[in-house]
Target: Winged helix-turn-helix domain-containing protein
Amino acid sequence: MEFDKSRNFDSEAEIFKVLGHPIRLKIIAGLCAKECNVKHIWECLGLPQATVSQHLALMKNKGIIEGKRDGVEVHYTVVHPLAKKLIEILG
Model:
């Protein structure tokens, strides 16, 4: 393999940077298994709702997850293929 200095990995590096936090990795792993709302996530992880919401907002802003409104609830799912692949690799 040769090095390709013209290849740009900026977007991939940004995704890895965002996912480089243990709580966000736990959230992504859970969302890869099942779409769910913020209440379910914070109850499963035993974290404050505000903490989970901040992590979800960051990942949503970076295009890693998306939320679908269902009445008063928002159900989150992973939409970025690199995030899905990373969780698959981590097992």
Q: What stands out?
A: The radius of gyration is 14 Å. The domain at 21-90 is CATH 1.10.10.10 (Arc Repressor Mutant, subunit A).
